[in-house]
Amino acid sequence: MDIVLKVNNLTKTYSGSEGKQVRALEEISFEVPRGIIFGLLGPNGAGKTTTIKSICGLVQPDAGSISVNGWDVQCQRAKALAQLTAVLEGNRNIYWRLTPRENLEFFAAIRGRKPRRLNREIPELLEVFGLTEKANQPVRKLSRGMQQKLALAVTLVTGAPILLLDEPTLGLDVKASYEIRSLLRRIVQEEQRTVIITTHDMNVVQDICQHVVIINEGRIVANDNIQHLLDLFQVRSYDLVVGQLTPGQRTGLEQIPHLRLEPVNSGWQISLDMENPTLLWQALDVLGSEQTPIESVSRKELNFEKVFMEILGGAKA
Amino acid sequence: MKLWLGFAAMLKKEIILMRRYFVNSLGGIITIYIIFMLIFWGYTGLGGAGLKLGTTIDSLVVSYVTWLMLMMAWQTIPYTLLQETQEGTLEQLCMSPLGLTVLSAFKLIAGVLTDLLVVIAMLALTMATTGTSLNIDIISLLPLILFALMAVSGLGFFFGGITLMYKRIQSYLQIVQFALIALVAADPSPVFRWLPATLPSHWIRMVMIKGQNLSYIPAGDWLTMLFSSLLYLFVGIAVFKLCEAKARRQGTLGHF
Ligand SMILES: Nc1ncnc2c1ncn2[C@@H]1O[C@H](COP(=O)(O)OP(=O)(O)O)[C@@H](O)[C@H]1O
Ligand SMILES: [Mg+2]
To answer: Could you report the predicted ipTM of this complex, rounded to two decimals?
Structure first.
């Protein structure tokens, strides 16, 4: 696998107001392969934006190195920057007094793109991003979702292969958020670009990211493939909700190892380990002896949000 | 090629915005003109007595228009940076391979070119209403204007750098505006002649009012103007770069 971004031992302490030192990043290292959507996840203040801004050369780290397609951000700045493009603040990285078309032309030009190819590319981009109708209206008159889509289109028109997006769906309604997500998938699939997003929205991560790094208080607490993380934390258990139990049944069930019994509204909830199927037979035998009604059987699913909370909980403990 | 594309884009943006917000620009021009007329009436009302700066109406017109030109040039960089910071576009400029210094210089030049229209309009307007006739010898004026612009551009970079580090600086920027009046109007004494734009402004008055041309300017004055203008420009750019680096360390480049 091609590695397009290498972050090595990145460390940053801000000297805030009144000499207060804020440790934002502590020896963060990770690598991003080409052609995926890579998620940088963490609660507010974790250090996500600092990481992104360091990669873009907007924040000077205290230590560590970053290389983009082999170019070092500190030493070979112009070469490294030519490889990447970013949206740092949702709908604000564009000129609100210019139109979408004028924005695209301007940002392409200051990135050194030649006008001839843009004549074809800009109308295509406007079309794909659903902005053709609004192409000649000042950006400040567009909806937030449209502004955010335009900001994304601006990153594409620079021609850079790596996109960094800080909280790309923040403040968007559900529809606009879905539109942005499907555009991102399209960018990665059809154009072989690499997208790195930061977010604290687990749904977004679970929906579009293939790989995540989770940071908390400036440190990496997980660095893994999404499916892997989900598998790791998948609670392999069945939940059965059943009717009233006799005292004899309760003692019988409590003797089964790894089985938990909790009273619920109209009866009991039985949770038991899925790894050992014989336990399920045993439990069913106890229930069958009195023909206890079974209200529901379900496999417990864990979503990414829970994984995230568990990892953060583990990091604190 | 990349440089040219960048500059052309910047100039195009300036022209688009000027046309789109023409009414605003017009309002600005009218305000500037009214301020001039107030000074003019105050001056003629006093019978020309007691005022040491600009002893003639001619001098008033030339000094005012020179000040206007230099003020617009001086404030381009700091105010643009403030605005780009507020709008969130500064980060995008910083990420251009051209770099923020070069893009700011482009913006400055594009600004000077578009502001020139306002300066010329104001010169015509003030000349017409005061009934003065001035010597507009473009060949002689061009190098002098260039020297004055270089010096105030240095100031622009200097304060632009400060703006990058401290965002709440607007009120201080206004002070510079008034200081600029003194720089333009000061007599070029052995000390004051080294101030930014003071000596070029003096010679602009000599050309426009007294009808002198470049051959009147002594070699010493040429050297002073060349040396001091370059010095102010390069010191300004150096400070700008230092401040930009500091802002990167503080993490305050752009919106925070
Ligand atoms: N320019 C700055 N000066 C001082 N502290 C900062 C600055 N930028 C960020 N911080 C602090 O650094 C920490 C990490 O911030 P940030 O990278 O923005 O986190 P995130 O994007 O994950 O919310 C926070 O505690 C934040 O308050
Ligand atoms: Mg953030």
So the answer is: 0.89
